[in-house]
Design a protein that fits this description.
heterotrimer; A: alpha/beta; six-stranded mixed beta sheet; C: alpha/beta; 14 strands
C-alpha cells in the first residue's frame, strides 16, 4: 500500500451466504483521479462501493481509504468521504438551504462555513431565490447537480458517486461531468459508477466488473487497444460476450 | 454535539411537514386518555339490576331502597315471578337479580336468619363478581347498622348463583372477543394490505389495462382470507370446547353462520380501507387504529358497554365487533336462539351491505 | 386509420401547494405498424403520456385515440386490445415465470398456447427458467418475461414504458432486435426510453423534454434538421480543451461526447484557422474533424432552441 494512493484494495471479497457478490478485487486509486467503475447490474459494483464507503464490512481482503483501514476505522472514513447515489437525492420536504445546513452540520462545519458554502453553491449553480424552495419542487436536472454539491459540502478528499447521471437529460449529464472535472482538478479523487459508456471515456482509469471480479482495468485508451475496440461500449460488449483477447 | 442538533432539527422538519401523521401522533394519545379516563373502567356503575321480592315487607323494602340508592345499581326491573327471571337475563336487561324469599322479614325476626339470593350474569365473570360483591356489601352494611340498634343478632345469608358460567371462567368472556379480534386482523388488515400492495408494486396498472373486470380481481383476493378465517374460527371453537372447556350452548349452525356473516362484514371493511389508503403503511395503520383498537376497547369485550358514557356508547354502535361479540356471547355462552339475536344480525347485515356498496363505488378504475 | 392519435393533451399534478405540469399540450400521431419511440429523460412526461393513452389516467385537456377508439369513452374496449408494460416491469416476484405468464393470459381470457407463436421467439429464451421465481431473474430476463406477458393476448398496439432502463447493454441490444421482429407481426409498438442512441432503431421518434415535444420525425429526418456544421475535437487534455473551446469566439457550444468533444461552430468557421488558434492555446495535438450529428446532438440543440433546430441559425 504505497503512500501515493488514496484508495488501496487487495483481494476484497464480500459474500452473502453462499453467494459471492465481490470476488477478490484488487486495485489502487491515485489522488485526483477520476476512477470509473463499470459493470452490468448485479456485477457487484454497488456492493464494492458500499464496502469502500464503510457502509458494509468485507468478508475478506484488505483495503484502506484515505489512509484509514476499512475494518478498524470505518466510522472515521465516513468523515473524509462524500457520497451520492442516484436513488438517494436530497430530502424532498426540506429546502435546499436546509439540506445544506443539515449535511454541513453532520460533517462538523461551523455556522459560518455553512453560510459560505450556501452562498458559494447558490452562485455556482445559479440558484437565486430557489435556494429556499423545497427540493421536491425543483426540476430533476437541478437535483443531480445539487446532490453532488451537497456531497462535497465538507470538501472531502474522495467522493463516491453511484450512477449519478441515471435518467437525466443529456445537457445536465454533461454539466454534471463538468462539476466532476472541476472537483478532480482541485485534487478531489472521484470514484464513479455509471451505465453510460461514453462517460467511461471521461475517466482517468476504468475497471470493469463481471460476476464480482474485475475483468479489465486501465485507462480507456489502454483498454481500447487491448480489446481492439473503437470505443468503451465496444470494450464492454466484447467483455460481456466473453470474447476476451488474451494478453500476457 | 452540533451534529446531533442538526439531526434533531431535520427530523422536526420531517415530522412537522407531514401533517397527516402528526394528527395521528398528537390526536391518538388524547383520544386514548379520554377513553380510558372516562369510559373504560373496571368499576361498574349504574349496572342494571332486577329485584324479585316475594315478601314485600318492611325489611325487604329497606334493603331494596339501599340498593337503589347505591350508585352502583340502577334498579330497572321489578320482577314478579321466577319465570320472569330467565328472559330478563337472556335479553340482557339485567346483570344481577336480587331475590328475597317469602316472609323474609318474619323469618329474620323470629328465626334469626334469612337468605337473599344473588343471581349474576356470569358471561362476563369479572363484572358478575364485582356486582355480587357490591350487592353483598350493601346488604352486609345494612345488617351491621341494624345490629347496632337491635339486641337480636340475626344474619342475612346470601346465596350466590352465577348464571351461564358458574365456574366464572374468564375464557367465556374472551373467546368471543378473541374471535372478533382475529377476524379483524386477518380479514380487514391483511386484505387491505394485499390490495394496496398490488397498487404499490405496479401490477395493478397492468391488471387495469386488461379486459378483466377489476372487481373480479378484488374478489379473488378476498377468497383466500375468507377461507383462512373459516379455519381460524374452526380452530378457535375447537380449542375453546376441548381445551378451555367453554361449551357451545346454542346452535352450532347458527354460531357458524353468524361468524360467516361477520367475516364478510370485516372483509368488506378491509376493502373499504384499501380503497382509501394510499400505501401499505396507511392501510395497516388505519386497520389497527380504526378497527382493531376499537374492537378491543369498545366492543364490550374488555370493558362493559353499559358503563361507558353516552358518547362512547354511541361510538361503540358503529363498531361491528360490538354486535358480533353480543351475538356470539348470546349464542355460544347463553345458548340463545335466533329470536334473541335477529336484530343484531340485521345490523351486521346492513353494515356489510353499506361497506360493500361504498367500496365498490369508490373502486378506482383509473390510477388517480 | 392511425394507430394512435394525440391532440393537445395537457396534464398536471398537484402535490400540496406545488403544481407540476407533466404534459404540456402534446400532439402526435402513430401510424399502423410503426415502431415509434418517445425519447426523453426522467420527468419529461413520457410515463404520464403512456398512462393517458392506456386509459389509466384522464388528461386535463385534449383528446386521444388508440386504434380509432377514444381513450375516455371507449376505455374498456381499448383495455381489451392493447398490451402494456409499465416501468419496473410489474411482474409478481413471488410467482414463477410460467405462473406469471399464465396469470396474464388469464386476465385476457386466453391461454399461453393460443398465441404462443407470437411470443415464441421471446419466451423460448427464458423458457428453461420456467419454474424460477420472477424475483430471482436478471434484469434482461425480467424484461423478456414482461414483454411476453404484454404480448400473450395478441394486442394491436403495444405500449412499452422504459423497457430498457436499468438493464445491461447487451440485453438492451437484444431487446430491440426482438422489437424489430415483432413489427413483422403487424403490431404497432410505442416505446419510451431515455437512451438517445436507441432512437435510431425506431421508424419515427418524438423527442420529449419537460412535458413538451421538441420534435417528431424519423431519426434521419431529425438529424438532417441539425442546423449548421458539427465538428469533433480531440486532444490529450480534454477538460482544458473544453474550457478553451468554450471561450473561443467562433464556437457556439462545446460539449463532451466521450472520446471527443462535439463543437458547434459559428457560420463562417474556418477549420485550419481554428486549428492554428487552438494549437496556439496550448493544444499541439489538436485534431478536428467534421461529423454527422446524432440524435443526442439534436436533442441538446432543441433543448437550447425549443422553437426549432432551424432557429439555432439565428444565433450565427
Amino acid at each position: 500500500m504505497s503512500g501515493n494512493t488514496v484508495i488501496s484494495v487487495k483481494d476484497l471479497t464480500k459474500r452473502f451466504g453462499s453467494f459471492t457478490a465481490v470476488d477478490h478485487i484488487t486495485f489502487d486509486v491515485k489522488p485526483g483521479e477520476i476512477f470509473g467503475f463499470l459493470g452490468a447490474n448485479g456485477a457487484g459494483k454497488t456492493t464494492a462501493m458500499r464496502m469502500l464507503c464503510g457502509l458494509s464490512l468485507p468478508t475478506a481482503g484488505k483495503a484502506t481509504v484515505a489512509g484509514l483501514d476499512l475494518y478498524l476505522d470505518a466510522e472515521k472514513i465516513k468523515q473524509k468521504i462524500g457520497y451520492m447515489s442516484q436513488r438517494f437525492s436530497l430530502y424532498e420536504d426540506l429546502t435546499i438551504r436546509e439540506n445544506i445546513r443539515f449535511y454541513g452540520g453532520i460533517y462538523g462545519l461551523s455556522n459560518q462555513q455553512i453560510k459560505d458554502k450556501t452562498a458559494e453553491m447558490t452562485s455556482n449553480l445559479k440558484l437565486g431565490k430557489e435556494v429556499d424552495s423545497l427540493v421536491k419542487s425543483l426540476p430533476l436536472g437541478w437535483r443531480q447537480k445539487l446532490s453532488f454539491s451537497v456531497a462535497m459540502v465538507h470538501d472531502p478528499r474522495i467522493v463516491f458517486l453511484d450512477e449519478p447521471t441515471g435518467g437525466v437529460d443529456p445537457i445536465t449529464r454533461r454539466e454534471f461531468w463538468t462539476l466532476i472535472y472541476e472537483a478532480a482538478n482541485k485534487g478531489t479523487t472521484v470514484f464513479v459508477t455509471t451505465h453510460y459508456m461514453d462517460e467511461a471515456e471521461y475517466c482517468s482509469r476504468v475497471s470493469i466488473m463481471v460476476d464480482g471480479r474485475i475483468d479489465a482495468m486501465g485507462s480507456p485508451s489502454e483498454l481500447k487497444s487491448k480489446f481492439d475496440a473503437y470505443d468503451m461500449a465496444d470494450v464492454f460488449l466484447k467483455l460481456a460476450r466473453g470474447a476476451k483477447r488474451s494478453d500476457n | 454535539m452540533r451534529q446531533f442538533l442538526f439531526l434533531i432539527k431535520k427530523e422536526f422538519f420531517h415530522v412537522w411537514r407531514d401533517k397527516r401523521t402528526m394528527l395521528i401522533l398528537l390526536g391518538m394519545p388524547l383520544m386514548l386518555i379520554l377513553i380510558f379516563g372516562f369510559a373504560l373502567t373496571n368499576e361498574v356503575k349504574n349496572s342494571r339490576i332486577g329485584v324479585l321480592d316475594k315478601s314485600h315487607d318492611e325489611t325487604t323494602r329497606a334493603i331494596i331502597q339501599e340498593l337503589e340508592a347505591s350508585r352502583y345499581f340502577d334498579l330497572v326491573d321489578n320482577i314478579n315471578s321466577e319465570e320472569d327471571l330467565t328472559p330478563a337475563f337472556q335479553s340482557g336487561r339485567i346483570r344481577l337479580a336480587v331475590v328475597f324469599m317469602e316472609n323474609f322479614g318474619n323469618e329474620l325476626d323470629h328465626g334469626n336468619s334469612a337468605a337473599i339470593q344473588l343471581i349474576g350474569d356470569a358471561t362476563d365473570p369479572n363484572v358478575a363478581t364485582t356486582l355480587i360483591n357490591y350487592a353483598s356489601s350493601v346488604i352486609m352494611d345494612y345488617q351491621r347498622r341494624q345490629r347496632a340498634q337491635a339486641d337480636l343478632p340475626y344474619s342475612i345469608g346470601t346465596e350466590i348463583r352465577m348464571l351461564y358460567n358458574p365456574q366464572l371462567k374468564g375464557a367465556y368472556n374472551f373467546v368471543p372477543g378473541v374471535m372478533a379480534m382475529v377476524l379483524m386482523l386477518v380479514c380487514a388488515m391483511m386484505t387491505s394490505i394485499s390490495i394496496v400492495r398490488e397498487r404499490e408494486m405496479g401490477t395493478m396498472e397492468v391488471i387495469l389495462v386488461s379486459p378483466i373486470v377489476p372487481i373480479r380481481v378484488i374478489m379473488a383476493k378476498l377468497i383466500p382470507y375468507f377461507l383462512l378465517s373459516m379455519i381460524n374460527i374452526a380452530s378457535i371453537l375447537l380449542l375453546s370446547v376441548y381445551v378451555l372447556d367453554v361449551p357451545i350452548k346454542g346452535s352450532l349452525m347458527l354460531l357458524v353462520l353468524e361468524c360467516l356473516l361477520f367475516t364478510i362484514t370485516v372483509l368488506a371493511l378491509g376493502l373499504l380501507i384499501s380503497s382509501v389508503a394510499g400505501s401499505q403503511q396507511v392501510a395497516m395503520l388505519a386497520s389497527l387504529m380504526g378497527l382493531f383498537l376499537p374492537t378491543v376497547m369498545l366492543s364490550g369485550f374488555m370493558f362493559p358497554v353499559e358503563n361507558m358514557p353516552v358518547l362512547l356508547k354511541g361510538l361503540s354502535n358503529v363498531v361491528p365487533s360490538k354486535w358480533f361479540y353480543y351475538i356470539v356471547k348470546n349464542v355460544m355462552i347463553k345458548g340463545l336462539g335466533f329470536e334473541n339475536v335477529w336484530k343484531e344480525t340485521l345490523i351486521l347485515l346492513g353494515m356489510t351491505v353499506f361497506f360493500m356498496t361504498v367500496s365498490v363505488k369508490n373502486f378506482k378504475t383509473r390510477l388517480e | 386509420m392511425k394507430a394512435v392519435t394525440v391532440s393537445n393533451i395537457r396534464k398536471s399534478f398537484k402535490s400540496g401547494k406545488a403544481v407540476t405540469e407533466a404534459v404540456r399540450t402534446v400532439s402526435l400521431d402513430v401510424e399502423d405498424g410503426e415502431l415509434f419511440g418517445i425519447i426523453g429523460p426522467d420527468g419529461s412526461g413520457k410515463t404520464t403520456l403512456f398512462r393517458i393513452l392506456t386509459t389509466l389516467m384522464l388528461a386535463d385537456e385534449g383528446t386521444a385515440t388508440v386504434d380509432g377508439l377514444d381513450v375516455v369513452k371507449d376505455f374498456r374496449e381499448i383495455r381489451r386490445r392493447v398490451g402494456y408494460m409499465p416501468g419496473r416491469f410489474s411482474l409478481y416476484p413471488d410467482l414463477s415465470v410460467e405462473e406469471n405468464l399464465t396469470f396474464f393470459a388469464t386476465l385476457f381470457n386466453t391461454s399461453i398456447d393460443e398465441n404462443y407463436d407470437l411470443v415464441k421467439d421471446i419466451y423460448s429464451q427464458i423458457e428453461r427458467f420456467k419454474t424460477r421465481k420472477a424475483g430471482a431473474l436478471s434484469g434482461g430476463m425480467k424484461q423478456k418475461l414482461a414483454l411476453s406477458c404484454a404480448l400473450i393476448h395478441r394486442p394491436t398496439v403495444l405500449f412499452l414504458d422504459e423497457p430498457t432502463t436499468g438493464v445491461d447493454a447487451v440485453s438492451r441490444k437484444e431487446f430491440w432486435e426482438l422489437l424489430r421482429n415483432l413489427q413483422k407481426q403487424k403490431i404497432t409498438i410505442v416505446v419510451s426510453t431515455p437512451y438517445m442512441d436507441e432512437a435510431g432503431l425506431c421508424d419515427r421518434v418524438a423527442l420529449m423534454q419537460q412535458g413538451r415535444i421538441l420534435d417528431i420525425d424519423s431519426p434521419q429526418g431529425i438529424t438532417k434538421k441539425f442546423f449548421g456544421e458539427l465538428w469533433s475535437a480531440r486532444a490529450e487534455k480534454m477538460y482544458e480543451l473544453m474550457l478553451s473551446l468554450r471561450e473561443m469566439q467562433g464556437v457556439v457550444s462545446c460539449y463532451p461526447f466521450g472520446q471527443v468533444h462535439h463543437v458547434v461552430p459559428k457560420k463562417d468557421f474556418n477549420i485550419s484557422q481554428a486549428q492554428d488558434e487552438i494549437r496556439a492555446m496550448g493544444f499541439p495535438d489538436i485534431h478536428l474533424a467534421p461529423i454527422s450529428p446524432t440524435i443526442e446532438d439534436c436533442f441538446m440543440n432543441l433543448m437550447n432552441h425549443p422553437e426549432g433546430q432551424m432557429t439555432a441559425g439565428n444565433e450565427r
